[in-house]
């Protein structure tokens, strides 16, 4: 029976293989650690022995392995709620320490804000503070409270929301710039503003209802005014125009009567007796338009016809005798 000799264990060869593998792994790690990629939403801060040497935007870059370190910072916009948090069902849960604020008329209001922010300075964001988001939130609360306290509660809940969020945003942006935390505010909006308790809510609803009633009454009054004023002005113009027309007619009539009187007076001055008789006859014609006038010299005796007397009795005819040399008349 032939037995093959056993192959001796080569320890030196195994050690060489292990060293070779370690060397390959080291080389790969060095090569892989010498390059880093920065996405479009990031910026990279490169440090060497704790000192910032450069910042890089999107792209592929080389660094000295084991000596230089890369800190990537997300540059996209983020948002947080101020005065509330969201539970698992997406419902707003009020944080009393943040959302309850005092107004200028010493009332309380529950007001919520939504703050959108992003990193403006990656170096300051990493090295200037340990918790830049917490500092930013505290600054935001201070800015909001300083703004809300300048307004009465009615305006905070109703008409002044836009102005409050604009002023608070301006204060917050200025404070963040002064503190140099590496963050900047993108937008600050009022989510909701309401009284802190149900009783106060009911009171505010009653006040709002009264205000709406007042506005409705004012609008109706203005509508009535806009309808009535033009009609009244038109009626006033019509009355004034009629008065002016009557005034002109009266003046013209008076002037005509004056001219007529002047002409009569002129004739009377020339022939007083004739003018006086003529005026008397004309007056009698106007007073007794159906009278039968007989002119005599005053001495002639004349028997009036019986027909005239019978007619006069009937009430349809009146006879008047006038002397030719005087203005006396006799009614029979």
Mean pLDDT: 80
What is the total tally of β strands? 14
Instruction: Note poorly predicted spans.
Output: 309-317, 324-332
Q: What would you call the shape?
A: rod-shaped
Q: Which percent range fits the helix content?
A: 40-55%
Radius of gyration: 58 Å
What does this structure look like?
The radius of gyration is 58 Å and the shape is rod-shaped. With 332 residues, it is of the alpha+beta class. The longest helix has 73 residues.
Main traits of this protein?
332 residues, alpha+beta, 4-stranded antiparallel sheet, 3-stranded antiparallel sheet, 9 helices, 52% helix, disordered C terminus
Brief rundown of the structure:
The chain is an alpha+beta fold and 332 residues long.
Q: What is the secondary structure topology, with strand pairs?
A:
Elements: H1 11-33, E1 35-38, E2 42-48, E3 51-56, E4 59-62, E5 68-74, E6 78-82, E7 84-86, E8 92-94, H2 96-99, E9 100-102, E10 108-119, H3 122-127, H4 132-148, H5 153-157, H6 161-179, E11 183-194, H7 198-270, H8 272-287, E12 291-296, H9 306-314, E13 318-323, E14 329-331
Parallel strand pairs: 12-13
Antiparallel strand pairs: 1-4, 2-3, 2-5, 6-10, 7-8, 9-10, 10-11, 13-14
């Amino acid at each position: 029976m032939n037995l093959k000799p056993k192959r001796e264990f080569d320890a030196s060869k195994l050690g060489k293989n292990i060293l070779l593998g370690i060397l390959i792994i080291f080389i790969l790690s060095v090569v892989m650690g010498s390059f880093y990629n920065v996405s479009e939403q990031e910026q990279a801060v490169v440090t060497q022995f704790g000192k910032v040497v450069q910042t890089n935007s999107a792209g592929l870059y080389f660094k000295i392995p084991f000596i230089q370190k890369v800190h990537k910072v997300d540059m996209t916009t983020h948002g947080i709620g101020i005065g509330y948090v969201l539970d698992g069902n997406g419902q707003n849960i009020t944080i009393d320490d943040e959302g309850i604020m005092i107004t200028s008329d010493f009332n309380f209001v529950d007001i919520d804000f939504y703050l959108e922010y992003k990193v403006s300075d990656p170096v300051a964001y990493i090295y200037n503070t340990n918790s830049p988001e917490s500092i930013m939130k505290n600054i935001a609360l201070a800015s909001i409270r300083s703004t809300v306290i300048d307004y009465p509660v009615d305006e905070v809940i109703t008409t002044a929301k836009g102005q409050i969020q604009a002023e608070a945003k301006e204060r917050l942006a200025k404070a963040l710039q002064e503190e140099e935390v590496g963050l900047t505010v993108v937008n600050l909006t009022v989510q909701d503003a309401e009284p802190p308790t149900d009783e106060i809510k009911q009171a505010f609803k009653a006040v709002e209802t009264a205000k709406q009633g007042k506005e409705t009454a004012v609008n109706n009054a203005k509508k009535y005014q806009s309808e009535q004023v033009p009609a009244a002005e038109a009626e006033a113009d019509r009355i004034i125009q009629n008065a002016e027309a009557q005034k002109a007619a009266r003046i013209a009539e008076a002037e005509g009567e004056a001219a007529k009187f002047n002409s009569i007076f002129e004739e009377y001055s020339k022939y007083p007796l004739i003018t006086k008789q003529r005026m008397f006859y004309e007056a009698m014609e106007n007073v007794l338009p159906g009278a039968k006038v007989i002119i005599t010299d005053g001495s002639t005796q004349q028997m009036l016809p019986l027909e005239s007397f019978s007619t006069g009795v009937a009430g349809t005819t009146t006879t008047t005798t006038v002397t030719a040399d005087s203005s006396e008349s006799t009614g029979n």
